[in-house]
Amino acid sequence: MDQAEIINKDVNIVAFYFKNTARRLRCFPKCMEYDGKRIKFTETGLVHPTKKGQRMIHVFDMTDGTADYRLEFDAADLSWKLIAITDTQYASISPKFRTAHQF
């Protein structure tokens, strides 16, 4: 998450989806309310647990197709925090590298 805007604020996750992998049901955020907007995630990136002191924190890297979001779920108090947002609007592809299928 290069050049991320650090947010570090509590957010509401208003929708989840579940995935059953290796005989284990896992839960992922699907939609978040932040700054008066509802953000629907389209893809899940890395997910990993970590510890902060005695607390178990689950870190989620999510995207809505326009920006990347890093979220933390605190398993002790069941709260979500938006850690950072990274804008993924990159420079356009040079014409010499474009294919006929790109628009």
3D architecture notes:
By secondary structure, the protein is mainly beta. The protein has one domain (5-89). The protein has no helices and seven strands. The protein has strands at 5-21, 24-34, 37-40, 43-52, 55-63, 67-74, 79-87. Strands 3-2-1-7-6-5-4 form a seven-stranded antiparallel beta sheet, with no helix packed on it. The model is unreliable at 97-103 (pLDDT under 50).
Features:
mainly beta; 103 residues
Quick gist of this model?
This protein has 103 residues and is mainly beta. It contains no helices and seven strands. Helix content is 0%, strand content 66%.
Topology overview:
Layout: E1 5-21, E2 24-34, E3 37-40, E4 43-52, E5 55-63, E6 67-74, E7 79-87
Antiparallel strand pairs: 1-2, 1-7, 2-3, 4-5, 5-6, 6-7
Annotation field: number of helices: 0
Mean pLDDT: 84
Query: How much of the polypeptide forms β-strand, as a percent range?
Result: over 45%
Question: How many domains, as an integer?
Answer: 1
Q: How far apart are the first and last residues' alpha carbons, in Å?
A: 26 Å
Sum up the overall morphology in one term: globular
Query: Structural class of the secondary structure composition?
Result: mainly beta
Specify the helix fraction band. Answer: under 10%
- The helix/strand order is EEEEEEE
The largest beta-sheet arranges its strands as 3-2-1-7-6-5-4
Low confidence ranges: 97-103
Number of strands: 7
Largest sheet: 7 strands, antiparallel
Radius of gyration, CA atoms, in whole angstroms: 16 Å
